[in-house]
Amino acid sequence: LEPEEFRRQGHLMIDFLADYYGKVENYPVRSQVSPGYLGEILPESAPYNPESLETILQDVQTKIIPGITHWQSPNFFAYFPCNVSTAGILGEMLSTGFNVVGFCWMASPAATELENIVTDWFGKMLQLPKSFLFSGGGGGVLQGTTCEAILCTLVAARDKNLRQHGMDNIGKLVVYCSDQTHASMQKAAKIAGMNPKNFRAIETSKSSNFQLCPKRLESAILYDVQNGLIPLYLCATVGTTSSTAVDPLASLTEVAKKYELWVHVDAAFAGSACICPEFRQYLDGVENADSFSLNAHKWFLTTLECCCLWVKNPSALIKSLSTNPEYLRNNASETNKVVDYKDWQIMLSRRFPALKLWFVLRSYGVGQLREFIRGHVGMAKYFEGLVAMDKRFEVVVPRLFSMVCFRIKPSAIIGKNDENEVNEINRKLLESVNEFGRIYVSHTVLGGVYVIRFAIGATLTDINHVSEAWKVVQDHAGALIVDAFL
Ligand code: PLP
Fold first, then answer.
1. What's the Cα-to-Cα distance from 128 to each of 2, 21, 224, 289, rounded to whole Å?
2. Which of 71, 154, 178, 184 to mutate to test the pocket of ligand 1 (most atoms within 8 A of CB)?
């Protein structure tokens, strides 16, 4: 690593990325390659002799980029966004450049202390209760993904419970969530050794907009208690993956409190919106939860990975996750006055993720971050209006944030009133639109209904992209509806 050569190559790389962002809109959004395409064009073994950055970048342009689905394209409307910013990318670059391994305070004090500070800052922006902040006895940690955050909190809850009730009870512990909860909950339950029979994905329905019903939760808990089981953990969601439904935190946490459940609130996508006063109501009740997480790498301009997890009781996490081998012992840790993040997460080694979040928070400020969120929500409202104006379509569930769930409605397809046939036509619409390549959308099934999810959130998207995207959908739907008549 020679500094002047690093400078030269670094400039080349920034130029490459700046050019990429300049033309990202021109690429087909969803990669059009077939499985195995790369093996056919790359050599079978690593080169023996060094190759120049210029040569490697040429291959990136011609061989890698065709296999990329362009999540940063302004025409990317699939899944959930993972938007970026200059601040986020450069913060990431700095963290990679330093490449410190901040597993404990001593291993890189700034990495730990900045993380303490930015999670407190962010927590205050979300008006989380003080008990979730370091300044109030709780605290935040930046983990990789929500999957890890849920697993860590589940393990903390499990061990806390087993310490009280005895280790033999592991087979009796029950996890509650809804049928809309992200699959990461089920994976976490498996990894944490929960009895698969004690996983309750409580049914939701269209009539309650796919929210988890507190009464149903309580009935499920009572049934389990009567059968000698031990209610352990509830995962409530603010902004479900399929439809951005918001579970009623206030009443759910009331039920959970009665039966002493650990409540985790998963706000992976929609949590970011709660920095705006008009969305903060969706977090009402979080004060009665034990842990709360959101992904800054989804809708908060921060590059992957950056899941922010706050807990009220860090010692529960630490009791489950800490290890103290001799080779990591140090005076600072012995004083118990510092945070050693290795004890708050699965991994030992960790990057310096606080830097990129700090860059984002400072470069934008709270005001501009709110405007960024509102911009996407405004475009989603506009899109919802476009759908409503076309009598062939319907919005399937109320839009709360920046995602619209819609479909061609049955009455538009004369003679095809069977729900399966309607689903099939909507599935064909999605495939036809995505194969066209101009935009990328994804789908879900809600109460048996196949739905197209139009999730707005790329940094470069503006209202014209949304209008054009709608035209693409209309054109492709027109052709399909005509076909359906034949
Ligand atoms: N929870 C919700 C509500 C999500 O929407 C997602 C991803 O879309 C996840 C969890 C999983 O997030 P991660 O990929 O960070 O584990």
1. 46, 35, 32, 11
2. 184
Identify which of 155, 235, 244 has the alpha carbon closest to the alpha carbon of residue 202.
235
Protein residue closest via CA to atom 15 of ligand 1: 145
Contact 236, 264 (CB under 8 A): yes
Instruction: For residue 147, give the ligand 1 atom closest to its CA.
Output: 16
pLDDT, tens only, 96-119: 999 999 999 999 999 999 999 999
Distance separating alpha carbons of residues 248 and 244, to the nearest angstrom: 13
Mutate to test the pocket of ligand 1, among 235, 295, 297 (most ligand atoms within 8 A of CB): 295
* 403-408, strands of its sheet edge to edge: 393-395, 403-408, 449-455, 442-446
CB atoms under 10 Å from CB of 471, counted, come to 12
Q: At residue 265, what is the residue type?
A: V
Q: Is 307 in the pocket of ligand 1 (CB under 6 A)?
A: yes
Compute, in angstroms, the gap from residue 409 CA to the centroid of ligand 1. 29
Whether residue 469 contacts residue 439, with contact meaning beta carbons closer than 8 Å, is answered with yes
Instruction: Tell me: ipTM over 0.95.
Output: yes
pTM exceeding 0.90: yes
State pLDDT tens for residues 320-341: 999 999 999 999 999 989 999 9
